[in-house]
């Protein structure tokens, strides 16, 4: 029988980029980023680096942890 692979938990840095908390960095997280692009709301789920704005730096983090 073929073993079913188990998902490896995300490290702490990657967890911040997992906007929908599904243990994957994927198109759903990208969608959250795009919906919130340019936002300066406090505690925004797409502000992955916590600098107060959703921008290219958050996109870069998303690409680093993309799975």
Task: List the main descriptive attributes of the protein structure presented here.
67 residues; 37% helix; mainly alpha
Structural summary, described in words:
The relative contact order is 0.19. The chain is elongated. It is mostly helical and 67 residues long. The protein has three helices and no strands. The model has no long low-confidence stretch (mean pLDDT 93).
What is the count of helical runs?
Answer: 3
Write down how many β-strands occur, each being a DSSP E stretch of 2 or more residues. Answer: 0
Catalogue the unreliable spans.
none
Beta strand %: under 5%
Overall radius of gyration:
13 Å
Determine the fraction of residues in helical runs and give it as a percent range.
Answer: 25-40%
Rough outline: elongated
SSE topology:
Layout: H1 12-17, H2 27-35, H3 56-65
Report a brief summary of the structure.
The chain has 67 residues and is mostly helical.
């Amino acid at each position: 029988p073929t073993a079913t692979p188990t998902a490896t938990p995300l490290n702490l840095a990657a967890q911040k980029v997992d906007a929908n908390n599904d243990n994957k960095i994927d198109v759903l997280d990208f969608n959250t980023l795009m919906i919130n692009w340019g936002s300066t709301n406090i505690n925004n789920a797409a502000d992955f680096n916590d600098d107060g704005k959703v921008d290219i730096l958050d996109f870069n983090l998303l690409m680093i942890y993309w799975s």
